[in-house]
Specification:
Helix content of chain B: under 10%
Strand content of chain B: over 45%
Shape of chain B: globular
Strand content of chain A: over 45%
Helix content of chain A: under 10%
Radius of gyration of chain B: 13 Å
Largest sheet of chain A: 6 strands, mixed
Order of helices and strands of chain B: EEEEEEEEEEE
Largest sheet of chain B: 7 strands, mixed
Oligomer: heterodimer
Order of helices and strands of chain A: EEEEEEEEEEE
Number of helices of chain A: 0
Distance between the termini of chain A: 36 Å
Structural class of chain A: mainly beta
């Protein structure tokens, strides 16, 4: 079992829909990251969380440390949100990030 | 806005050849990371530098891969000899320090034929 599991692996939705991507992890962590990767490979950091909730524009990230679970929400989704969304965690006392396999999101107009 | 630079963006090489990738991190960032991402998977850390020192290279195949960051600024990742299984995206990232947010470069897509 991977240390970081994301669901769903693939998600297709219509423009305007509310999107939720989930991330579960099995170790105690010091930080969790949500990343966005567009076709062509470039990765953009969306959020870094250690507790609670963060919001940036139409994106919201939440984390529940006790349940070892985080969600990324996209409100009023748009075709330009189509990308792979990756969850990554830094275990307590560790230096490196462990990445999930990513969720491929496709938003159709 | 400052960015992490990588070159080349694409590289096609024959197996058994040598190949090198270059990364220039954001100015002032002490920590530099090289990742390998195989299609359909998340990135995997190959090597992490703190200034010019390697702090984690546990996943680096040291028989064929080498990395250096001689002056603690830009870095080079080398593969010699390349194998078919090395075909992947090689990503460089940097952060102000080891526990801070990482900024990724555009990556180098390597194809070994």
């Amino acid at each position: 079992k991977n240390e970081v599991e994301q669901s769903p692996q693939n998600l297709t939705a219509q423009e305007g829909e509310f999107i939720t991507i989930n991330c579960s992890y099995s170790v105690g962590i010091s930080a969790l990251h949500w990343l966005q990767q567009h076709p062509g490979g470039g990765i953009v950091s969306l959020f870094m969380l250690s507790s609670g909730k963060k919001k940036h524009g139409r994106l919201i990230a939440t984390i529940n440390i006790q349940e070892k679970h985080s969600s990324l929400h996209i409100t009023a989704s748009h075709p330009r949100d189509s990308a792979v969304y990756i969850c990554a965690v830094r275990a307590q006392g560790a230096q490196k990030l462990v990445f999930g396999q990513g969720t491929r999101l496709t938003i159709n107009p | 806005e400052a960015e992490v630079a990588q070159s080349p963006r694409y590289k096609i090489t024959e197996k058994s050849q040598a190949v090198a990738f270059w990364c220039d991190p954001i100015s002032g960032h002490a920590t530099l990371y090289w990742y390998r991402q195989i299609l359909g998977q998340g990135p995997e850390l190959l090597v992490q530098f703190q200034d010019e020192s390697v702090v984690d290279d546990s996943q680096l195949p040291k028989d064929r891969f080498s990395a250096e960051r001689l002056k603690g600024v830009d870095s080079t990742l080398k593969i010699q000899p390349a194998e078919l299984g090395d075909s992947a995206m090689y990503l460089c990232a940097s952060s102000w320090d080891r526990d801070y947010e990482q900024y990724f470069g555009p990556g180098t897509r390597l194809t070994v034929t």
